[in-house]
User: What shape does this take?
Amino acid sequence: MPLELTDIYGMRRYEDGARLLTHVDREKTHACSLIVNIAQGEIREPWTIEVYDHADRLHEVGVWCIIFCFLVCRTR
Assistant: This one.
């Protein structure tokens, strides 16, 4: 099945201590998600993202990414 572009959300700026909480995208239109980290400057600790693995176990992944980091996630 070919992918179809359904939504694009604008840029967001997250400050120190910000969190993107666990959420479920719309299954019918969001087969995968892409996070593009443009720049982080000087970071003191990694930013985290919560992801589920194929066995439905939750993991908190620390991301050390200063500039141009791409994360692709499949929708649950």
Remarks:
- The chain has a mean pLDDT of 72.
- The longest strand covers residues 32-39.
